[in-house]
Amino acid sequence: MKKNMGTVDRILRILVAIVIISLYFANVISGTVAIVLLVLSGIFILTSFIGVCPLYMPFGMSTRKGK
What we know:
By secondary structure, the chain is mostly helical. The protein has 2 helices and no strands. It starts with 6 loop residues before the first helix and ends in a 17-residue tail after the last helix.
């Protein structure tokens, strides 16, 4: 797959995931909301590491600078 995420996008996703995980371990969020947000943070981390966001593809979006 062609990478479509820029550096800033990847860093922001990782930071958001870290905040969500921190809120969970600090018992600020719990229950169903916590589970949904933890799954979302896992997706954010995964897409950040591989550099591809599947939701960008159908719209032809890319935050990566063209070369």
